[in-house]
Design brief:
By secondary structure, this protein is of the alpha/beta class. The chain contains 14 helices and 21 strands. It has helices spanning 32-47, 71-83, 98-104, 106-111, 127-136, 154-158, 187-190, 199-211, 239-246, 267-275, 292-297, 304-317, 336-349, 376-399; strands spanning 23-28, 51-52, 61-66, 93-97, 117-119, 145-147, 169-173, 175-176, 195-196, 216-220, 228-230, 236-238, 254-258, 282-284, 322-329, 353-358, 405-413, 419-423, 429-433, 442-450, 454-464. The structure holds 5'-deoxyadenosine (5AD) and iron/sulfur cluster. Belongs to the methylthiotransferase family. MiaB subfamily.
């Protein structure tokens, strides 16, 4: 991929004396892990002396941190790349990062010659070198600097320490990759094999985040509850052990984790929900379908009954837990009866909140070659029925909190004057107007009203500033 041509691709803008970009802007698509990766890329570039631009238009390096999970997400990347060209024909240096970079590699540079850098999710610690390589590429060249190596976890050791955070709630990737190979999913191919980051590195990163003003940490992993590691005394620990240690960090008020697999929901982790007050009462536990036949074809390695048994145990330990999930409608071969089984499991589990998607065939995954792909019309209609049911459950969950006193971590400014938006323990958005409060405060509120997506609260008392 090092051929140079004299085609008319405008060169990247080269604003500083040496010609390297000065201001970066990162746009992350897809999952929370991409948000985490995007933040770490930004922190690394800032550590190199670059500045974060306020808007994409002001940046001379734009990083599109992409998602490959569904076809729509991929299409957005290419339309975004097209929109980066300025009216005068110039363009910023463009880096495509994330899972599309991993899955499509050189193909991106072929399809979109204005792309200067292609960097996979396990290689972004080498962005500075790739920027330098791209900068040295001849003016008007079609050459892109590409790195889609997948060495397990070396990137974390090569990244700078965490910077002061702009928000009170932060993500922390503890586990990455997936060995489960659900037949619809690209993650094992784009994020690679399952790895757990070392215990001591995570405790150190969490402490740095808290020192930098963070009060809530969400532990991330594609199979976060499969995290394993040896603690500082050499004892083997599961995720609950890591959570218990993080809970001892003074100033860390709240801990969450996502996304979990039903088969890795151990009794010890379930017990942690009853025992560790900082662990919030919220569990994202995707089931994908309620039909055992479809779950088998998806290679989920659990059935509807075993999923519901896990939920029962979790609710026995933590009766008020808010349950969340992911669903796919229209997996190849899904009959109306299979879909009814999905509606049944939703009724049985009762979700506080959930995500639902139409099946999207992903190149290279086994399900993409399965017979009996479902028509878009049937998928649309099933998705609508499922979302109606999930929406009603979510609204009912929210309505049940009206009149209750609850604790809110204030995370961002609202649109109305004086309005602040925070999260309840159950991850609901709560709007409050409290002139005495500021972002990062933990306050007690009374819930006055509930909508489908948010709650209105009246401030009662400041808990900790
Ligand atoms: N089509 C539709 N949805 C998918 N997901 C993963 N792969 C696909 C696909 N090919 C959904 C699953 C998963 C969530 C992150 O995205 O529900 O839990
Ligand atoms: Fe998208 Fe999955 Fe990659 Fe996250 S891990 S960016 S959801 S494909």
């Amino acid at each position: 991929m090092n051929q140079t041509t004299d085609t008319l691709v405008p060169t990247s803008s080269a604003p500083d004396a040496e010609g390297g970009p000065r201001r970066y802007f990162v746009t992350s698509f897809g999952c929370q892990m991409n948000v985490y990766d995007g933040e770490r890329m930004g922190e690394m570039l800032a550590a190199q002396g670059m500045e974060q631009a306020d808007a994409r238009e002001d940046a001379d390096l734009v990083i599109l941190n992409t998602c490959h999970i569904r076809e729509k997400a991929v299409a957005r990347v290419y339309s975004d790349i097209g929109r980066l060209r300025r009216e005068d024909g110039s363009k910023p240096m463009i880096a495509v990062a994330g899972c599309v970079a991993q899955a499509e590699g050189e193909e991106i540079a072929r399809r979109a010659p204005s792309v200067d850098i292609v960097v996979g999710p396990q290689a972004y610690h080498r962005l500075p070198q790739l920027i330098e390589q791209a900068r040295l590429n001849p003016s008007g060249s079609r050459t892109a600097a590409i790195d889609t190596d997948m060495p397990a976890a070396t990137k974390f050791g090569a990244l700078p320490a965490r910077a002061r955070q702009p928000r009170p709630s932060a993500f922390l990737t503890v586990q990455e990759g997936c060995d489960k190979f659900c037949t619809y999913c690209v993650v094992p191919y784009t994020r690679g094999a399952e790895i757990s980051r070392p215990f001591t590195d995570l405790v150190e990163e969490a402490k740095a985040l808290v020192d930098g003003g963070v009060r809530e940490i969400t532990l991330l992993g594609q199979n976060v509850n499969a995290w394993m590691g040896d603690d500082d005394k050499g004892r083997s620990r599961g995720l609950e052990g890591l959570i218990a240690t993080l809970a001892d960090i003074a100033g860390l008020e709240r801990i969450r984790y996502t996304t979990s697999h039903p088969n890795d929901m151990t009794d010890a982790l379930i017990a942690a929900h009853a025992e560790i007050p900082q662990l919030m009462p919220y569990l994202h536990l995707p089931v994908q379908s309620g039909s055992d036949r479809i779950l088998k074809a998806m290679n989920r390695s659990h059935d509807a009954a075993s999923y519901l048994a896990v939920i029962d145990k979790v609710r026995a330990a933590k009766p008020d837990i808010a349950l969340s999930g992911d669903f796919i409608v229209g997996f190849p071969g899904e009959s109306e009866a299979d879909f009814q089984a999905t509606l049944d499991i939703v009724r049985a589990a009762n979700y506080a909140q959930a995500y639902s998607f139409k099946y999207s065939p992903r190149p290279g995954t086994p399900a993409a070659d399965m017979e009996d792909q479902i028509s878009p019309e049937i998928m649309d209609e099933r998705l609508q029925r499922l979302q109606e049911l999930l929406g009603a459950q979510q609204h009912a969950f929210n309505a049940a909190t009206v009149g209750k006193r609850t604790r809110v971590l204030l995370e961002r400014q609202g649109r109305k004057p004086g309005q602040l938006i925070g999260k309840s323990p159950w991850l609901q958005s709560v709007h409050v107007i409290d002139p005495a409060a500021k972002l990062g405060d933990l306050i007690d509120v009374e819930i006055m009203s509930a909508g489908p997506n948010s709650l209105e609260g009246a401030a009662l008392a400041l808990v900790t500033a």
